[in-house]
Amino acid sequence: MNVDILLIDDDPIAARVIIGQLEDFGRPRFAASAAEAQFQIDLRVPELILLDMDMPGTGGLDLCRTLRQDMRLETVPIIFVTAMSDEDVEVRGLECGASDFIAKPTSTGLLRARVNTHLRLQRMTRQLQDQAMTDGLTGVANRRTFEATLHAETARALRNADTLSLILFDIDHFKAYNDQYGHPAGDECLRQVARALSAMARRPSDVFARYGGEEFVVLLPQTSRNGAMTLARAMLARLHELAIPHSASGVADHVTASMGVTSLEDDWRDPVQRGGNGPSDHAARLVERADQALYQAKAAGRAQVVFQPFGHSLLPPPPGGPGVAVNMPGLRSPADVAGADTGAEAGDCDSTVAETWPRIEGIDREQSERRLCGNRELFGTLLHSLVQQYADFEEAPIQVIAAPDIARRIHKLKGSAGTLGAMRLHDLALRTESALQRHDDQLAGALLSEVGAQLSRLRHDCASTFEGWQ
Ligand code: GH3
Ligand code: MG
Predict the structure, then answer these.
(1) Ligand 1 atom index nearest CA of 184
(2) Which residues are annotated as modified residue Phosphohistidine in the UniProt record (predicted)?
(3) CA distance 459 to 452
(4) Measured from the CA of 176, which atom of ligand 1 is nearest?
(5) What's the maximum distance between 2 C-alpha atoms anywhere in the chain?
(6) Best mean pLDDT range from 49-63, 73-87, 180-194, 407-421
């Protein structure tokens, strides 16, 4: 067995005895002072530290306290070796972050047993930490890890004036895949997709995570819009190569995904112009924009990438123009795609509000018309599907608020309402989301009732505007 143990002791004789006693574990590294210990740790983080409590200079207790402040040593056991067997000393040692004590002169059996115990505990702790960070089914990072990294990376991007991009993608017609091939095959499909596409986010700071169900997210620090779009397109192409059969897809004969991309870039970062309050606002908005882009990719026929600039609704579109949709080869013709209107370009288009664009209370005409490139029919279809999707909000808001997925649904509703220019609904969803985050269930319940009422109004107004609505 070869374990990387660091022994810190200013007494070379005592150290030699301990090194001999630990020979079963391999040869420990040795440091005779705090400075040497620091040098060894910087060289490589050890698996376990044995520390002489009676060190001169800063002393063992001070050194232990310093080591405990080092994040790299968070899970590394530090065992004090001491000739002082006094309860008070032991208490002070534990308060400084020591994991255990061994009395000098050390007994070989006891020393080995203690070292073994702490190594085992440390491995279990690391395993648990890894499990808490990864998704059990696919082995990629989980949502929690993504969210923690998203906040840290957004703060870093704002501080350093770096770009930060996000890809959010969702497997197309995955419910139909499960229905056709069974749930275990669905699980295997998710594993395959995660394995193949996560390998493409290669930089150490990239995070590929399962966002939920059949939805994944890729966080790309220091990556521009072009870089993120290139990667997203390459991911679509990889799915095409993987060619996992999906005969019930309706989009292609293999598994495809729809992707939404957004980038926090220089032009869109000014919090005053953007109306934001700092990193957490920017982080939430990144997800929201990617989600809106994904929604548009779905609406425009699936199996494609749509880009949405980070701040375009508050600022003019960047040079390079409107949202970009990228279609994949090998897809069925638009006419085959049930329920989707692929005649429209996804993303923003510059145009004035056409006279025929519906006037509906609570809908910002200009915004919805621009976002859907004047495609009135698509607008009707999407609004109809939004109202259908959240019909339960109209019927029983109080029960709905207790559902475990309520935060996610409200978040989705907010994004979809924004895309459709349903600004009153968007604003209500935003406030509900914020109340839920503050665990103010009473306010969230009241707001959700208003959301339900607004949805009812939309249903009513739209029924008189679009044919075939009931
Ligand atoms: P769309 O193209 O609009 O995304 O359609 P969809 O069918 O993919 O979307 P929908 O949200 O209707 O269905 C998602 C399905 O994904 C339903 C759910 O059973 C399935 N799913 C979610 N998580 C898992 C999982 O862990 N394993 C399996 N096998 N299926 C899952
Ligand atoms: Mg899906």
Answers:
(1) 29
(2) 411
(3) 10
(4) 7
(5) 93
(6) 180-194
Atom 19 of ligand 1, nearest CA residue: 175
Where does the pLDDT of residue 48 fall: very low under 50, low under 70, confident under 90, or very high at 90 and above? very high
pLDDT, the chain, mean? 84
Q: How far is the CA of 363 from the centre of ligand 1 (A)?
A: 30
CA atoms of 39 and 35, how far apart (whole Å): 6
Ordered by start, the domain boundaries in the chain are: 5-132, 134-334, 351-470
The CATH number that domain 5-132 falls under is 3.40.50.2300
Alpha carbons within 13 A on the beta-carbon side of 134: 14
What's 250's DSSP letter? S
Region label for 358, one of left (φ > 0), alpha (ψ between -120 and 50) or beta (otherwise): beta
CATH of 134-334, one of 3.40.50.720, 3.30.70.270, 3.40.50.2300, 3.40.1190.20: 3.30.70.270
Angle 88-61-107 from CA coordinates, rounded to 5°: 75
* Cα dist from 314 to 274, 278, 295, whole Å: 6, 16, 20
Query: What is the C-alpha to C-alpha distance for residues 41 and 6, in angstroms, rounded to an integer?
Result: 8
Q: What is the mean pLDDT of residues 1-30?
A: 89
**Which residue lies with its CA nearest to atom 21 of ligand 1?**
213
| Neighbouring-strand partners of residue 215 | 170, 212
Phi, psi of 443 (to 5 degrees): -65, -40
Strands 257-264 and 164-171: antiparallel
CA atoms 335, 215, 235, 375: torsion sign = positive
Cis link prior to 319 (omega < 30° from 0)?
Answer: no
Gyration radius (Cα) of the chain, Å: 29
351-470 has CATH 1.20.120 classification = yes
Among 303, 309, 426, 408, which Cα is nearest to 362's?
426
Q: Which of 153-162, 262-271, 288-297, 329-338 has the highest mean pLDDT?
A: 288-297
- How far, CA to CA in Å, does 291 sit from each of 61, 89, 131, 247, 280? 51, 57, 27, 27, 17
User: Does residue 351 register a pLDDT over 70?
Assistant: no
Collapsed DSSP state (helix, strand, coil) of residue 320: coil
Between the CA of 450 and the centroid of ligand 1 the distance, in Å, is: 29
Helix (H, G, I), strand (E, B) or coil at 20: helix
